[in-house]
Amino acid sequence: MQRWKGRVALVTGASVGIGNATARALVQHGMKVVGCARDVDKIRETAAELQQTGAAGQLYPVQCDLTVEAEIRAMFDDIQSQHGGVDVCINNAGLAIKAPLLSGSFEDFRTMTDVNILAPTLCTQLAVQQMRKRGVDDGHIITLNSMSGHRLVGSNAFYSMTKFAITAMTEGLRRELREMKSHIRATCISPGLVETEFAIRLHKDDVQKAHAAYASIECLQAKDLADMILYVLGAPPHVEFNDIWVRPTEQVF
Ligand SMILES: NC(=O)c1ccc[n+]([C@@H]2O[C@H](COP(=O)([O-])OP(=O)(O)OC[C@H]3O[C@@H](n4cnc5c(N)ncnc54)[C@H](OP(=O)(O)O)[C@@H]3O)[C@@H](O)[C@H]2O)c1
């Protein structure tokens, strides 16, 4: 991780869960991390905590609703003027809403599309533009996919559809970068069950269901994913992890 010290990472969805753990890990390794989410107060708390513990880097909290294109563009403009530009983009923010194909609301389909597909696509485009403008050829785009981006489990087909899109996005991005002779790397990480707010938000009408799911096996923790992201970033520049499937050992499907 030595070569990333002092360089700039954007982590979307940094308020809680995998994004929060990742922002912490990158700051502890000396990176300047722009962490965004709607609940910016939680990121401010994390930033203060990191500062108090003498972390090597710094966390810069930004409020951004990733369903709003103008807010994403404004965030990238601010990153450029304040920090020069993004070197590493972690497209982490994502959500699942209960919305069966035959009865789900169009609004819920749209929210999942906006946050899980369009936001990472736009963040990727703007991040790569900032890298290329500054001649950064070792940048990295890492996107949180899911095992649901490879196979359908349960009945949440629309969420799965958005994650299948991330599988296609990562490979498509890789090909476009290779066509440009760029060495910027593209990775997606496809976890199974991770104990975060994810299932609690999904089952907000029946939170016990979420707790039962997390209690049913020994789940992955957000820190496990942050450690994986450090591993992916720390690989030598000629090594590109493209997709990492990672499930709790006890998870069956
Ligand atoms: N947990 C799992 O079992 C699991 C499994 C496979 C894949 N994943 C993927 O891993 C990623 C992280 O999930 P997690 O488990 O850490 O979930 P989480 O604990 O629910 O956190 C989700 C994050 O996304 C942010 N977010 C949601 N909507 C947003 C919006 N409109 N604008 C900005 N930020 C938004 C949230 O911030 P605010 O609410 O503050 O805006 C929050 O920081 C997601 O892409 C998810 O699909 C999770």
TrEMBL record:
It is an enzyme of class 1 (oxidoreductase). Keywords: Oxidoreductase. It catalyses: 17beta-estradiol + NAD(+) = estrone + NADH + H(+); a 3beta-hydroxysteroid + NADP(+) = a 3-oxosteroid + NADPH + H(+); 17beta-estradiol + NADP(+) = estrone + NADPH + H(+). Pathway: Steroid biosynthesis; estrogen biosynthesis. Coiled coil: none annotated. Gene3D superfamilies: NAD(P)-binding Rossmann-like Domain. InterPro entries: NAD(P)-bd_dom_sf, Sc_DH/Rdtase_CS, SDR_fam. Its EC number is 1.1.1.270. GO terms for molecular function: 3-beta-hydroxysteroid 3-dehydrogenase (NADP+) activity; estradiol 17-beta-dehydrogenase [NAD(P)+] activity. PROSITE patterns: ADH_SHORT (PS00061). SUPFAM superfamilies: NAD(P)-binding Rossmann-fold domains. Belongs to the short-chain dehydrogenases/reductases (SDR) family. Catalyzes the conversion of the 17-keto group of estrone, 4- and 5-androstenes and 5-alpha-androstanes into their 17-beta-hydroxyl metabolites and the conversion of the 3-keto group of 3-, 3,17- and 3,20- diketosteroids into their 3-hydroxyl metabolites. Exhibits reductive 3-beta-hydroxysteroid dehydrogenase activity toward 5-beta-androstanes, 5-beta-pregnanes, 4-pregnenes and bile acids. May also reduce endogenous and exogenous alpha-dicarbonyl compounds and xenobiotic alicyclic ketones. PANTHER family: DEHYDROGENASE/REDUCTASE SDR FAMILY MEMBER 11 (PTHR43115), DEHYDROGENASE_REDUCTASE SDR FAMILY MEMBER 11 (PTHR43115:SF4). This is Dehydrogenase/reductase SDR family member 11. The lineage of its organism: Eukaryota, Metazoa, Chordata, Cephalochordata, Leptocardii. The gene is LOC109482774.
